[in-house]
Automatic annotation (TrEMBL):
Transmembrane segments: none annotated. Gene3D superfamilies: Winged helix-like DNA-binding domain superfamily/Winged helix DNA-binding domain. It comes from Candidatus Moduliflexus flocculans. Residues 4-98 form the HTH arsR-type domain. This is Transcriptional regulator, ArsR family. GO terms for molecular function: DNA binding; DNA-binding transcription factor activity. InterPro entries: ArsR-like_HTH, HTH_ArsR_DNA-bd_dom, HTH_MetalResp_TranReg, WH-like_DNA-bd_sf, WH_DNA-bd_sf.
Length: 107
């Protein structure tokens, strides 16, 4: 594998790692509906502000979300809504896996 290919796969891994937490998956799904500030997300998640801010920082670093500061409030939104296509693929894998398990158990 050459250096450019390796760098591309490392970037992919960074994005997948950023998504590899239930809270961050929740945040991305909620941001697909509309933008939220940290305080709103904190209330929805039921965690403290610093924890939610850390999750948002990880998602921002990976290029999944972007922020927009308005006065003293920072609003977050999806940077690339196409990430939801990835979620659809995950749901397909989950459904296929459950169907196969059900089929194996019914034997």
């Amino acid at each position: 594998m050459d250096a450019d290919t390796r760098a591309r796969f490392e970037m992919r891994a960074q994005i997948v790692k950023a998504l590899a937490h239930p809270t961050r998956l929740f945040i991305v799904e909620e941001l697909s509906k509309h933008e939220y500030c940290v305080c709103e997300l904190t209330e929805m998640i039921g965690a403290d502000t610093s924890t939610v801010s850390k999750h948002l920082s990880i998602l921002k670093q990976a290029g999944i979300v972007k922020d927009d500061k308005r006065g003293t409030t920072v609003y977050y939104q999806l940077r690339c809504p196409c990430i939801l296509n990835f979620f659809g693929c995950i749901e397909d894998v989950m459904q296929t896996t459950m169907q196969e398990r059900t089929r194996l158990l019914s034997r």
